[in-house]
Amino acid sequence: MVWQPPNTSSAARVRPSPISVAKPSKHPAVFHRGPPDLPREFESGTWSADGTIQEKRLEDVEQRDLKLDTLRIEGSVLERAQLSGGQFGSAVWKDARLIGCDLANTRAQRSTLVRVELIDCRLTGFSATALDWQDVLIQNGDVRYAQLSGGRFRNCEFQGCNCQEADLQHADLSGSVFRSCNLARADLQGAKLHNTDFRKSEVEGMRVGMNDLWGAIVDPAQAMVFAQLMGLQIK
Fold it and tell me: Is residue 7 assigned to a domain?
Protein backbone atom coordinates (compact mmCIF):
# COMPACT_ATOMS: atom_id res chain seq x y z
CA MET A 1 0.00 0.00 0.00
CA VAL A 2 1.36 3.35 -1.03
CA TRP A 3 0.54 6.38 1.18
CA GLN A 4 -0.88 9.36 -0.69
CA PRO A 5 -1.44 12.84 0.70
CA PRO A 6 -5.08 13.67 1.38
CA ASN A 7 -7.03 15.67 -1.15
CA THR A 8 -7.37 19.12 0.40
CA SER A 9 -9.36 20.77 -2.35
CA SER A 10 -12.59 22.45 -1.25
CA ALA A 11 -14.51 20.24 -3.64
CA ALA A 12 -13.23 17.11 -1.96
CA ARG A 13 -14.40 17.88 1.56
CA VAL A 14 -15.78 20.59 3.79
CA ARG A 15 -13.82 21.42 6.90
CA PRO A 16 -15.82 21.95 10.07
CA SER A 17 -15.92 25.53 11.28
CA PRO A 18 -13.38 26.16 14.04
CA ILE A 19 -14.61 26.99 17.52
CA SER A 20 -13.81 30.59 18.34
CA VAL A 21 -12.99 31.77 21.82
CA ALA A 22 -13.80 35.39 22.53
CA LYS A 23 -10.96 37.43 23.96
CA PRO A 24 -11.67 39.89 26.78
CA SER A 25 -12.13 43.39 25.44
CA LYS A 26 -9.71 46.07 26.57
CA HIS A 27 -12.70 48.39 26.72
CA PRO A 28 -15.64 46.34 28.06
CA ALA A 29 -19.14 47.66 27.52
CA VAL A 30 -20.34 49.90 30.34
CA PHE A 31 -24.03 49.66 31.14
CA HIS A 32 -25.85 52.95 31.17
CA ARG A 33 -29.61 53.34 31.56
CA GLY A 34 -31.19 56.72 31.02
CA PRO A 35 -33.54 57.69 33.92
CA PRO A 36 -36.99 59.19 33.33
CA ASP A 37 -37.04 62.88 32.51
CA LEU A 38 -39.76 63.97 34.92
CA PRO A 39 -41.08 67.50 35.54
CA ARG A 40 -40.30 69.16 38.87
CA GLU A 41 -43.95 69.88 39.47
CA PHE A 42 -47.04 67.91 38.48
CA GLU A 43 -50.59 68.88 37.75
CA SER A 44 -53.09 67.58 40.25
CA GLY A 45 -55.69 65.51 38.48
CA THR A 46 -57.61 62.30 38.15
CA TRP A 47 -57.58 59.41 35.74
CA SER A 48 -58.24 60.47 32.15
CA ALA A 49 -61.06 58.59 30.47
CA ASP A 50 -59.24 58.66 27.12
CA GLY A 51 -56.24 56.83 28.62
CA THR A 52 -53.78 59.73 28.30
CA ILE A 53 -51.83 60.64 31.45
CA GLN A 54 -49.46 63.54 30.88
CA GLU A 55 -47.37 65.37 33.50
CA LYS A 56 -49.53 64.15 36.36
CA ARG A 57 -49.03 62.43 39.68
CA LEU A 58 -51.77 59.91 40.43
CA GLU A 59 -52.20 57.85 43.58
CA ASP A 60 -54.50 54.96 44.53
CA VAL A 61 -56.09 54.66 41.09
CA GLU A 62 -58.62 51.83 40.65
CA GLN A 63 -58.90 50.88 36.98
CA ARG A 64 -59.04 47.08 36.82
CA ASP A 65 -60.02 45.25 33.61
CA LEU A 66 -59.70 48.47 31.63
CA LYS A 67 -60.06 48.27 27.84
CA LEU A 68 -58.50 51.01 25.71
CA ASP A 69 -57.11 51.41 22.23
CA THR A 70 -54.08 53.23 23.72
CA LEU A 71 -52.84 53.74 27.26
CA ARG A 72 -50.41 56.66 27.02
CA ILE A 73 -48.38 57.75 30.06
CA GLU A 74 -45.85 60.54 29.65
CA GLY A 75 -43.88 62.59 32.17
CA SER A 76 -45.92 61.17 35.04
CA VAL A 77 -45.73 59.24 38.29
CA LEU A 78 -48.32 56.63 39.30
CA GLU A 79 -48.40 55.17 42.81
CA ARG A 80 -50.47 52.17 43.84
CA ALA A 81 -52.43 52.15 40.59
CA GLN A 82 -54.59 49.04 40.18
CA LEU A 83 -54.49 48.22 36.45
CA SER A 84 -54.65 44.43 36.53
CA GLY A 85 -56.49 42.64 33.74
CA GLY A 86 -56.28 45.62 31.38
CA GLN A 87 -56.40 45.10 27.61
CA PHE A 88 -54.80 47.69 25.35
CA GLY A 89 -54.19 47.98 21.64
CA SER A 90 -50.97 49.76 22.58
CA ALA A 91 -49.26 50.85 25.79
CA VAL A 92 -46.99 53.82 25.07
CA TRP A 93 -45.14 55.07 28.16
CA LYS A 94 -42.35 57.64 28.12
CA ASP A 95 -40.51 59.25 31.03
CA ALA A 96 -42.71 57.62 33.66
CA ARG A 97 -42.32 56.06 37.09
CA LEU A 98 -44.77 53.50 38.47
CA ILE A 99 -44.49 52.59 42.15
CA GLY A 100 -46.36 49.74 43.83
CA CYS A 101 -48.69 49.30 40.85
CA ASP A 102 -50.59 46.14 39.90
CA LEU A 103 -50.25 45.24 36.21
CA ALA A 104 -50.94 41.53 36.59
CA ASN A 105 -52.47 39.84 33.53
CA THR A 106 -52.37 43.09 31.57
CA ARG A 107 -52.29 42.53 27.82
CA ALA A 108 -51.12 44.86 25.06
CA GLN A 109 -50.86 44.27 21.35
CA ARG A 110 -47.92 46.66 21.35
CA SER A 111 -45.87 47.83 24.33
CA THR A 112 -43.44 50.74 23.79
CA LEU A 113 -41.62 51.99 26.88
CA VAL A 114 -38.85 54.61 26.94
CA ARG A 115 -37.14 55.73 30.17
CA VAL A 116 -39.66 54.04 32.45
CA GLU A 117 -39.16 52.78 36.01
CA LEU A 118 -41.40 50.07 37.47
CA ILE A 119 -40.64 49.81 41.19
CA ASP A 120 -42.28 47.23 43.49
CA CYS A 121 -44.80 46.47 40.75
CA ARG A 122 -46.71 43.27 40.04
CA LEU A 123 -46.37 42.12 36.42
CA THR A 124 -47.43 38.50 36.86
CA GLY A 125 -48.76 37.22 33.55
CA PHE A 126 -48.15 40.55 31.79
CA SER A 127 -48.05 39.98 28.03
CA ALA A 128 -47.31 41.94 24.87
CA THR A 129 -47.45 40.71 21.29
CA ALA A 130 -44.91 43.30 20.08
CA LEU A 131 -42.60 44.79 22.69
CA ASP A 132 -39.94 47.51 22.37
CA TRP A 133 -38.45 48.75 25.64
CA GLN A 134 -35.54 51.16 26.03
CA ASP A 135 -33.95 52.36 29.30
CA VAL A 136 -36.49 50.50 31.42
CA LEU A 137 -35.91 49.55 35.07
CA ILE A 138 -37.93 46.84 36.81
CA GLN A 139 -36.98 46.78 40.49
CA ASN A 140 -38.33 44.25 42.99
CA GLY A 141 -40.93 43.23 40.41
CA ASP A 142 -43.00 40.06 40.25
CA VAL A 143 -42.53 39.08 36.61
CA ARG A 144 -43.57 35.43 36.91
CA TYR A 145 -45.28 33.91 33.86
CA ALA A 146 -44.87 37.15 31.86
CA GLN A 147 -45.14 36.61 28.10
CA LEU A 148 -42.37 38.73 26.58
CA SER A 149 -41.19 36.52 23.73
CA GLY A 150 -39.63 38.25 20.75
CA GLY A 151 -39.37 41.54 22.64
CA ARG A 152 -36.61 44.08 22.13
CA PHE A 153 -34.91 45.30 25.31
CA ARG A 154 -32.31 48.05 24.97
CA ASN A 155 -30.38 49.13 28.08
CA CYS A 156 -32.96 47.53 30.33
CA GLU A 157 -32.32 46.59 33.94
CA PHE A 158 -33.99 43.97 36.14
CA GLN A 159 -33.13 44.25 39.84
CA GLY A 160 -34.30 41.80 42.49
CA CYS A 161 -37.08 40.48 40.27
CA ASN A 162 -38.86 37.14 40.39
CA CYS A 163 -38.80 36.06 36.74
CA GLN A 164 -39.68 32.40 37.27
CA GLU A 165 -41.26 30.81 34.19
CA ALA A 166 -41.23 34.09 32.26
CA ASP A 167 -41.27 33.60 28.49
CA LEU A 168 -38.38 35.49 26.89
CA GLN A 169 -37.88 33.23 23.90
CA HIS A 170 -36.20 34.93 20.94
CA ALA A 171 -36.07 38.25 22.84
CA ASP A 172 -33.22 40.65 22.14
CA LEU A 173 -31.70 41.23 25.58
CA SER A 174 -28.30 42.36 24.33
CA GLY A 175 -26.61 44.66 26.84
CA SER A 176 -29.33 44.33 29.47
CA VAL A 177 -28.78 43.48 33.15
CA PHE A 178 -30.39 40.91 35.45
CA ARG A 179 -29.15 41.62 38.96
CA SER A 180 -30.17 39.41 41.91
CA CYS A 181 -33.10 37.97 39.95
CA ASN A 182 -34.67 34.52 40.07
CA LEU A 183 -34.67 33.08 36.54
CA ALA A 184 -35.56 29.50 37.48
CA ARG A 185 -37.50 27.90 34.62
CA ALA A 186 -37.51 31.16 32.67
CA ASP A 187 -37.39 30.38 28.95
CA LEU A 188 -34.65 32.25 27.07
CA GLN A 189 -34.25 29.81 24.20
CA GLY A 190 -33.25 31.60 21.01
CA ALA A 191 -32.69 34.91 22.85
CA LYS A 192 -29.86 37.30 21.96
CA LEU A 193 -27.70 37.55 25.08
CA HIS A 194 -24.52 39.29 23.94
CA ASN A 195 -23.29 41.43 26.86
CA THR A 196 -26.35 40.46 28.90
CA ASP A 197 -25.21 40.54 32.53
CA PHE A 198 -26.59 37.71 34.69
CA ARG A 199 -24.19 38.04 37.62
CA LYS A 200 -25.67 37.42 41.08
CA SER A 201 -28.89 36.01 39.63
CA GLU A 202 -30.32 32.51 40.12
CA VAL A 203 -29.96 30.74 36.78
CA GLU A 204 -30.26 27.08 37.72
CA GLY A 205 -33.20 25.65 35.81
CA MET A 206 -33.23 28.49 33.30
CA ARG A 207 -34.04 27.18 29.83
CA VAL A 208 -31.47 28.35 27.31
CA GLY A 209 -29.51 26.86 24.44
CA MET A 210 -25.75 26.51 24.51
CA ASN A 211 -25.35 28.79 21.49
CA ASP A 212 -27.69 31.38 23.01
CA LEU A 213 -25.17 32.09 25.76
CA TRP A 214 -22.46 33.37 23.41
CA GLY A 215 -21.18 36.67 24.79
CA ALA A 216 -23.29 36.61 27.98
CA ILE A 217 -21.68 37.86 31.23
CA VAL A 218 -21.80 35.36 34.10
CA ASP A 219 -20.00 34.79 37.38
CA PRO A 220 -17.95 31.62 38.12
CA ALA A 221 -20.80 29.87 39.94
CA GLN A 222 -23.13 30.45 37.02
CA ALA A 223 -20.49 29.22 34.60
CA MET A 224 -20.53 25.89 36.46
CA VAL A 225 -24.30 25.67 35.95
CA PHE A 226 -24.13 26.52 32.27
CA ALA A 227 -21.25 24.10 31.73
CA GLN A 228 -23.78 21.28 32.14
CA LEU A 229 -25.41 22.42 28.90
CA MET A 230 -22.16 21.63 27.15
CA GLY A 231 -21.85 18.17 28.68
CA LEU A 232 -18.70 19.14 30.55
CA GLN A 233 -17.51 17.15 33.55
CA ILE A 234 -15.94 19.50 36.06
CA LYS A 235 -13.80 17.65 38.60
Answer: no
Q: Which helix (H) or strand (E) holds 53?
A: strand 52-54
Neighbours of 14 (CB within 10 A): 7
For 59-72, the pLDDT digits (tens) are 999 999 999 999 99
Tell me how far apart the alpha carbons of residues 57 and 78 are, in angstroms, rounded to a whole number.
6
CA distance 87 to 105: 9
pLDDT(26) > 60:
no
Q: How many domains does the chain fold into?
A: 1
Q: How many CB atoms lie within 10 A of CB 130?
A: 13
Range of the domain at 100: 52-230
The answer to whether the CB of 89 falls within 8 A of the CB of 109 is yes
Query: Is this structure's pTM higher than 0.90?
Result: no
- Cα dihedral 217/219/223/226 (nearest 10): -60
